[in-house]
Amino acid sequence: MRTWLKNNRGFLALLLGMGLLRTAVADWNPVPSGSMRPTILEGDVVLVDRLAYDLKLPLTHVVLARLGEPQRGDIVTFDSPRDGTRLIKRLVALPGDQVEVRAGRLLINGTEQAYSAPHEVAEPVAPGVIWPALRAREDLAGHQHAVQFLGGAGHGRDFGPVTLAADHYFMMGDNRDNSEDSRFIGSVPRELLIGRATRTLVSADILGSWSPRFERFVAPLE
User: Fold this and answer.
1) Which of 80, 89, 179, 182 is catalytic?
2) Strand order in the sheet with 105-108
3) Which of 35, 179, 187, 203 is flagged as catalytic?
4) Torsion over CA of 178, 96, 108 and 194, rounded to 10 degrees?
5) Residue 35 bears catalytic tag
């Protein structure tokens, strides 16, 4: 055993280094669900900057140093405060903000966010299942991004108002009628934030033919 360890110490050091890189610096996460459509699709693998907000002790939620402040509009990976499941959503509200949703429209501190005129699309929700949907551009305190509303779903259309506690953040999926987010799991404390998703690395059509979506390779996320 000692001889094997000695002969393979370079390879073992490489594995250790890669493990530390993924747990402390940068990570890549496959996305299995459609809660962030149309921004992130099922089958995307996203790159996550783990140093965007905090330096943490690897494999823990222990914060060693604060490196940056989460912003409205960031796409964030985090552990669910309800059951620890790793999720990816958009950060829509900051500590101290009042959050409300009325008829699907987001209000921050009593101000409704601006939306572009919606357009209709046919949205795949499962293999062979298509639903009508509306897509629009939401202006989230100056950060514009796409959002989607599924026809007839009515999932969490009205919510709040609630006021966020210190170091707590409100997360929502861009697919507003098909996302189990802070409307259901509660606000997310800062120590559960993992990092900011910055781009897709690779992508495959897992609801269809499993063919690569080359146009999404190394594509930035808005």
Assistant:
1) 89
2) 111-112, 105-108, 98-102, 159-163
3) 35
4) -40
5) yes
The pLDDT tens digits for 125-158 are 777 778 888 999 999 988 899 999 987 555 557 8
Residues in the chain with pLDDT values less than 50: 4-6, 8, 10-21, 24
State the pTM of this model. Answer: 0.86
Residue 15: strand pairing partners: none
SS3 annotation, the chain: CHHHHHHCHHHHHHHHHHHHHHHHCEEEEECCCCCCCCCCCCCEEEEEECCCCEEECCCCCCEEEECCCCCCCCEEEEECCCCCCEEEEEEEECCCCEEEEECCEEEECCEECEECCCEEEEEEEECCEEEEEEEEEEEECCEEEEEEEECCCCCCCCEEEEECCCCEEEEECCECCCCCCHHHHCCEEHHHEEEEEEEEEEEECCCCCCCECHHHCCEECC
Looking at residue 1, what is its pLDDT? Answer: 59
187 is catalytic: no
Task: Please give, one letter per residue, the 3-state secondary structure of 68-125.
Answer: CCCCCCCEEEEECCCCCCEEEEEEEECCCCEEEEECCEEEECCEECEECCCEEEEEEE
